[in-house]
Every structure is written in structure tokens, then in C-alpha cells.
Amino acid sequence: MARALTQTEFLIELEPVVEENLNRHLGVAKEWFPHEYVPWDDARTFDGILGGTAWRPEDSTIPEVARTSLLVNLLTEDNLPSYHHEIATTFGRDGAWGTWVGRWTAEEGRHSIVIRDYLIASRALDPKTLERARMAHMEAGFQTEYGTMLQQLAYVSFQELATRIAHRNTGRASGDETCERILARVAADENLHMLFYRNLLGAALDLDPNQTMRAITDVVKSFQMPGAGMAGFARMSMQIAHAGIYDLRSHKDEVLMPVLRQWRVFEKEGLDPEGEKARQELAEFLDNLEVTAKRFEERRDARRAREAAK
């Protein structure tokens, strides 16, 4: 039986894969400027020290649930300093790993800039409420619940894709062409980040399939969005799910399954008993998730039918 690789050995063995995928990423990533996406002509001075006009809910025509999703998405992006700390601590700051950590952080930084500037210029959200929520969320910070590099690689592979889906669907739900364009641009970044992490985890699966299979299963079974710790997240995520912006169906069919198929986890050969056990747990969890997703959809459809009949 092959010896399980240590985390240090994984970092060393995966370094060439990191370099290869970093070069690929730099070759396809497009330079863009947040200020070019913001409708500055729509902006007005707010009340306060400059004596402008106070924010009112009717300042924006974006549906309430889309505003809620925009708030969740922005606060999630705001926690970048914590995310940087987590991946820099795990992957290090040297070599190709360190170069990627810096590049990823720099690209992610544009997301909160462009979304916030848009929300303020378009008056889609109360800026005081938004700032208070930002302060509270960033003070709480983010700390990964996963203790190994493999678990963290698996998590970001799914999380980047989940974030992409959430941004794109929020843009569509906004009914605002500018908002949709901004979130499509952000989602394009998230997709490239997903590809980077997905390719790394795929290489790890080849290096040590049993240990990596366990990490994948553990993450799938316990996955939560990085914004789960923000105040009111459960209530807001339920509103978002009922609107069909991001729900169990999209999580399973558009996030989990595409990545798992890319890794070919159910075709992987040569697993030991522990690896097979992890894969069986994964299959059972996905079956149960399908049942839960169908039940949620049925309840949501019934609720919408009752509301339409009123």
C-alpha cells in the first residue's frame, strides 16, 4: 500500500502544476477596470457632511430579493483579507504558490470595489446599512474549518464555482443591464479561479487518490458558502433560494456535479478500502441531496401557486 503524502510533500509535488496553471491563467485572464463599469452619471451626493439627499428605498427599481443577494455577495467579497490570510498560510508565499496567492488576491479585490461603487452610484442599497454590515462582517472575519491543504483545495474548487453562479443569477434577477454586466464580469474571474483550483485538486487526486477522495467527501458533506457567518445569513439565503437565485438544485447540478465529473471521482480506479468508503459516502450524500432538493422545489412551487391564486 502506498504511503500517504504529507502536506509538505503535496506542496512540493504540486508546484509544477501550480506554475503551469498560473501561466495558463495569466495567458487568458483579461485586464479590466472597475471604474469603467459604474454609472457615475447616476450618482448623487448623500446626506451627511456634504448636505446631499438621504437614501430612500424607491431610489432603485431593483427587486428586493436581488438587493438582498447583492448585499450577501458584496459582504462575502469584502472578507478578502481573511481569505488571503487563510490561503497564504496554507500555500505559502514562495515560488509559484506565492505568486498565485498574490495574483488571486489582487483579482478578487476588484470585485468588492466594482460592486460597492455600483450600489452606491445607483443607490440600490442604503449606504449606512451597508457600511455597518461591512464593519460587523469584517470584524468577525473568516476562518476555514478545514485543517488540510487537500480539504482547502477541494473547498475553493466548489466555492469559486458557487460564487460564479450566485453572481450571474443575481445579475439576471436584478433586471438592470448595468448590474448584470458587472456581475457577469466578476463571474468570469471566479470561473478562471475555479479552473485553477479544480486542476490542482485533480492533480492531487492522481498523486494520492485515497487521501484526496476523503477530502472531497468531507468538503461536499459540510460545504457552506464563505458568507455563512454574516448576520442574518440563514434568513437571506432562504430568500435567495426561494427566488431561485441560488438553491439546493443549483448547488448540486451546477456546482457539485460538474466539478465531480471533471475529476471523474466515480470512475477513479485503485482506491483502497478507506478511499472506497469515502466515495460511497459521497454517493450516498449526493443521493440524499437530490431528495432534499426535490422536496424544496415542490414546496416552493406550491408556495408560488398559493401566492398566485390570491
UniProtKB/TrEMBL annotation:
Chain ranges passing through the membrane: none
Keyword Lipid biosynthesis in record: yes
EC nos: 1.14.19.2
Residues holding Fe cation 1: 77, 108, 111, 190
Top-level EC class as recorded in UniProt: oxidoreductase
UniProt-listed Pfam families: FA_desaturase_2
GO molecular function: metal ion binding; stearoyl-[ACP] desaturase activity
Full protein name: Acyl-ACP desaturase
Originating species: Herbidospora solisilvae
